[in-house]
Specification:
alpha+beta; 4-stranded antiparallel beta sheet; 5 helices; 8 strands
Length: about 150
């Protein structure tokens, strides 16, 4: 099996930048309302620049590769590896288990890989729906049938 590489989905990157528009528009709206305050303009500018750098850094750093032995996922700050031999259960769920993190167009899905006491969660948000489906088909070939459950729970 050759190594399959997945990158940050371009559509998600565009949605992240579009979500920054209200933040950038707020100082403009204050200016038109006649409430020019240099401190607010600097404050919102710094926040907008910080968010922009965060979005670009995340998109550039994200890389997931699937090879014959397992999955290597490079995230924003750390890299994790899951070996196929160590996976004891794998299932797909809808949404996130943390209500404060709903950040995508519903419905989005997550693949949860369990290895002992640890969980490795792969979301369809950075991958996009097509790449997520491709990842599921690759894992269906690599993992035993009793380990992988692709029905959405």
């Amino acid at each position: 099996m050759t190594e399959q590489i997945f990158r940050f989905h371009g559509g998600r990157l565009v949605r992240n930048f579009v979500s920054l528009v209200p933040l950038a528009a707020f100082p403009v709206a204050l200016h038109h309302l006649g409430k020019d305050d240099p401190a607010l303009i600097v404050f919102f500018s710094v926040i907008a620049i910080g968010f922009t750098i965060g979005v670009v850094f995340t998109a550039m750093r994200f890389r997931m590769s699937v090879n014959a032995n397992g999955i290597l996922c490079r995230g924003r700050f750390k890299t994790r590896t899951v070996r196929f031999d160590d996976v004891t259960a794998a299932f797909v769920r809808q949404g996130r288990d943390k209500a404060s993190r709903f950040m995508g167009p519903p419905p989005f899905r997550e693949l949860v890989l369990k290895s002992g006491d640890t969980k490795f969660v792969i979301s369809s948000l950075p991958l996009g729906p097509d790449a997520f489906d491709e990842l599921l088909s690759i894992l269906a070939q690599r993992l035993p049938d009793d380990v992988l459950d692709v029905r959405v729970s």
